Amino acid sequence: MTVKRAIYVIVLLLSITALTLFANNSSYKMSTEINNKPLPANYGNKIILHHTAGSPYAEKIRLMLGYTNTEWLSVIAPSNTVERPVQEKLVGGYSRRIPIMQIGSDIFCDSYIITEELAKLTSRPELGTSGSSDKVKEFISDEGTYRYKIFLNSLRKREIAFAYFRSMPFKEFRIFIKGRLKATKDADLTKMKYSVAVEKRNRYINSLDSMLNTHEFILSDSSPTLADFSAYHMLWWYLRLHKSPISDNQTNLERWYNKMSQFRKEDGTELIPEQSLQIAKMTQPLEVPAHMKKSANIGKQVSILPNDYVKGATLPVKGILVGEDDTRYIIRRETPETGVVHIHMPKHAYGACL
């Protein structure tokens, strides 16, 4: 009896020692907290937005999150360089673009895919392209290409440079400019004569003011649609650069802009960037819908690039194709830092910025 009791005590002591060592092991602590900051409750189901303060496409998503009263977590990505190590671990080459939306280990790239997911999650189909009317689809069709070029070319380069320069230290500004020049060297940003761009921008602004003469919102009276959020974010970007495209006599547009801006809430709860990697690793991707598993390419190694004007500014996203339909790809990717993630990418890029 004494021998059995001794063995029992020894086993008990060894178990307690093992548990103590396990609890004190730093790698185990890293799975639940970083710098003594624990992961938020229900982290696996919450939206994580990887964004920068000055991104107009990120502002569109932030405004939508505020409008729908959606709780979200915030990861601030570096804005003074195209290298984004945390985001690169999640999405590979797409990390040069912002915003990126993450829910657990599902990663959504490009504002087209992000707004589609938000429309579904918030039961507001009018916020996604697929749930929009034909008039709204026509309105937003050139958002990420032609309209962007108009707004970009209706600003002098020195105006853009000065606006960014006064918001960051000189050393960061130099890195920022160098990085953007490197990233956009192959982009299809066809030069438009300044006077032509200004004329086209003013014509567009006037058309918005006219639409709002008979509607509370663009193309709608009851509530904003994707058209409103798409129009808002470029005007917001202009104002952020201290250039107002709205003239004093455009009272309809000013009323609408002020009303839209009131939907904006404070940013979500900020995460330490590495915590987004932890969340990806501690969760599992959602089941791929059955209709997306019918492609002949399922299971194949793929390398995908967005097909919009930015071209070579984005590096390829490589992985195993696990889902495909008429509008998106789902790519399975695995790294030691994130475990298995599913990256959702559009077949036709609509909007993201560097």
Kindly describe this structure:
The protein has helices at 2-24, 26-30, 56-67, 85-91, 111-121, 134-140, 146-153, 157-165, 170-183, 194-211, 226-240, 251-261, 273-281, and strands at 33-34, 37-38, 47-51, 72-76, 100-103, 106-109, 269-270, 301-304, 317-324, 328-335, 339-346. The chain has 354 residues and is α/β, with parallel strands linked by helices. It has three domains: 2-30; 37-126 and 267-346, Glutaredoxin; 129-261, Glutathione S-transferase Yfyf (Class Pi), Chain A, domain 2 (Up-down Bundle), CATH 1.20.1050.10. The chain has a nine-stranded mixed β-sheet with strand order 7-4-3-5-6-11-10-9-8. The protein has a two-stranded antiparallel ribbon with strand order 1-2. Helix 3 crosses helix 11, helix 6 (134-140) runs parallel beside helix 11 and helix 7 crosses helix 10 (194-211). The longest helix is centred in the first third of the chain and has 23 residues, at 2-24. Residues 3-31 and 350-354 have low confidence and may be disordered.
Count of structural domains: 3
**What integer value in Å does the Rg equal?**
24 Å
Assign the structural class, choosing from mainly alpha, mainly beta, alpha/beta, alpha+beta, or little secondary structure.
alpha/beta
Mean pLDDT: 81
| Large-scale geometry | globular
The CA-CA distance between the termini, in Å, is 73 Å
**What proportion of the residues form beta strands (DSSP E)?**
5-15%
Q: What assembly state would you assign to the polypeptide chains in this entry?
A: single chain
Q: What's the SSE pattern?
A: HHEEEHEHEEHHHHHHHHEHEEEE
Proper CATH architecture of the largest domain: 3-Layer(aba) Sandwich
